[in-house]
Description:
By secondary structure, chain A is an alpha+beta fold. Chain A is built from 20 helices and 28 strands. Chain A is globular and about 90 Å long. Chain B is 33% helix and 15% strand. Chain B has a 5-stranded mixed beta sheet, covered by helices on one side.
Amino acid sequence: xxxxxxxxxxxxxxxxxxxxxxxxxxxxxxxxxxxxxxxxxxxxxxxxxxxxxxxxxxxxxxxxxxxxxxxxxxxxxxxxxxxxxxxxxxxxxxxxxxxxxxxxxxxxxxxxxxxxxxxxxxxxxxxxxxxxxxxxxxxxxxxxxxxxxxxxxxxxxxxxxxxxxxxxxxxxxxxxxxxxxxxxxxxxxxxxxxxxxxxxxxxxxxxxxxxxxxxxxxxxxxxxxxxxxxxxxxxxxxxxxxxxxxxxxxxxxxxxxxxxxxxxxxxxxxxxxxxxxxxxxxxxxxxxxxxxxxxxxxxxxxxxxxxxxxxxxxxxxxxxxxxxxxxxxxxxxxxxxxxxxxxxxxxxxxxxxxxxxxxxxxxxxxxxxxxxxxxxxxxxxxxxxxxxxxxxxxxxxxxxxxxxxxxxxxxxxxxxxxxxxxxxxxxxxxxxxxxxxxxxxxxxxxxxxxxxxxxxxxxxxxxxxxxxxxxxxxxxxxxxxxxxxxxxxxxxxxxxxxxxxxxxxxxxxxxxxxxxxxxxxxxxxxxxxxxxxxxxxxxxxxxxxxxxxxxxxxxxxxxxxxxxxxxxxxxxxxxxxxxxxxxxxxxxxxxxxxxxxxxxxxxxxxxxxxxxxxxxxxxxxxxxxxxxxxxxxxxxxxxxxxxxxxxxxxxxxxxxxxxxxxxxxxxxxxxxxxxxxxxxxxxxxxxxxxxxxxxxxxxxxxxxxxxxxxxxxxxxxxxxxxxxxxxxxxxxxxxxxxxxxxxxxxxxxxxxxxxxxxxxxxxxxxxxxxxxxxxxxxxxxxxxxxxxxx
Amino acid sequence: xxxxxxxxxxxxxxxxxxxxxxxxxxxxxxxxxxxxxxxxxxxxxxxxxxxxxxxxxxxxxxxxxxxxxxxxxxxxxxxxxxxxxxxxxxxxxxxxxxxxxxxxxxxxxxxxxxxxxxxxxxxxxxxxxxxxxxxxxxxxxxxxxxxxxxxxxxxxxx
Lengths: 790, 158
Ligand code: FES
Ligand code: FES
């Protein structure tokens, strides 16, 4: 039960941020009003692929209320640069990936339905939208043949004429020869063909941006729904060249969920900022849900062939994975890294498979760009590994839990170097599996299955023993692998003279509760009361730099930076305390917010030292400057490796194909936990997105490239009555290389759940594979096929 | 057109376009931005308010249709500093993360409990079918609604 009293590390402290949200006074981007504001709407491609022949803006410009119509041609004429991709991936032959031009507003060719080619500014939102619709009707284009399906895209004519093909890169990792050798001596070879369905992120707050230009100072302030405002500023300055960095301030106020989709820099915030400067009026835009479906970077979308070699006892010998990954029409900000370094490197899973070889083709199609969505590469990898293991257990008639156990990396094998470039620092996979089996009453499954059979139901149980690499990332390693920026995080702690503390973090909170957990960490470390710690984030004007929140990195990297900054505060505090107490620095101890002289009863509280720090007489000015504020950067030594076991139990109605999840258990090892209540909430949310992928969600384009799942009527979101109550538990092996021993928890649910659900359903039906999402019709058909075959 | 709305116990005489939706008037003209817009097909429930005691998706109702009626939004739910028991329960049970769906969830939940006290977990899940949350997985929302329900049914002193 949550408590108000105990507020340290490990306590389920209620959230500081909640009061404003439950009373309706949160401040999201669209809630902000600026005097003199105008409204923007975007004219977007109605075609999947078309060449722009003529765009006459006069009629639209003359429509009621329209203040300006700006096109891609105007933007190019102003010399604005394209949207970059931040990770350079190389192909097998050493060549760089192919990068198409990505102008924020298209001026020559339209490459997916929703691709923006003009921005209209008007007095009201409706007027802007009416004029944008008029432009969409009047633009003259030559329609070109779109390449929509991932299946044949690699061999089709390139969608971008400047590129040699639709293959962005043909990447590999692992040892091909060793893998082949493993297959050569195998007693069993398991093969699967899998599709990982395209998902549409659907944070409940649609993307939005407001830009205000100050004629007096030439500054542009942008409010936007971003998970990393500093990255937006960097890209706008260095790549788009909208304005120099010191003339840009990017504020991400309350942000209503992100799940990856708000990491990226999109056409719209660039265009809104550019228009505000050009028209010298504040410009605002908020996506409709329809625009969100069409243009928020999508997730997943893989086709994979995978093989697993086993010896006669069921030991894994080798694994080979070949994947085609859909990148969509352009390279979104981190798109290239997701199906490569966040995917291929995870193929060892929790297993000591000695040889692994992974090949990935990143492929362009005339669809919305695909980039990181909760889990980003790691759910896809887990799905491959855990489906292979499940099918292996089925074909070898082995117990799926036992087969996993047999192949686990054992606790004494850590640190464990995988064949795909990662070094796992710690873990205990047996422990989480064991705990999950007890929660699931695995022993009792047989009886439950028989009982269900009496009711005409097929009951199945499915496992997913996942691993993820989080805490992105050791900068040197990441940059060696092609990352365009280091992946450290920054923190600043400012102690006010009265002893209260302001914490500035580069991590961004959009539901994660950092205002609470980061305050817990600092309150605990400095011994300052929890309610005296204020966490500030999401504003480039208030903190120096930061890399934001994604890849479950906030507590592992951002939290570690807080510890480093706190250590500096304590070190300086000791010098001031020594001066105050007439002792030498090495005689000063610090604990629970009190500086004391060893072997004496002399002491000064943290607040007394803070106050002294601002009174020059009380500061040893020959040693330190007045004031008590410190900054720190933390660059992780390694990734963190959260891991765990998810068990799903289902009942399938053979008459209808309807699936009921009757229990779902998640036992995760996140290392140390700062706030168990918040961690549990993150798991619930992640599981729901994972179950959504397995059972409901699917972004579908027709052959002409129209998105047929472009609203909540066609794209099935998980709702309260679709889901069970989850059983969530943890095991702990502390991370060995960061000061808090934490690993991160934001993505685990979405990573582990899909395989657990699909494995449970195929276990129930006895069919080898049903592609996600497991709509009841598909399940029913697979049962019919099986019946006919029998 | 001219309409009269009583919003959170304050009477407003407003001049609104015929086509203005209730949510647009609440957010735009009255600055009550606690009511959110999450979709354009009346499916997410981020915009739920109470109109004459019934929960209504304010993106689906013209402001004109609410003429002369009493509207309560999330901003009007608490009695001064004292939170409504449902608001308290959402905080106590960690029934929110990003907070975007929260106002609509709470308004839906309050009416759900008023309409049928003594709800079971399954009934709460069914009753919230019109509200989408992408963050919480609903489990803690369901818990909050059940806890909020006991708070609402308990005597005011508690
Ligand atoms: S805004 Fe989605 S239902 Fe009203
Ligand atoms: S709390 Fe974020 S959508 Fe519900």
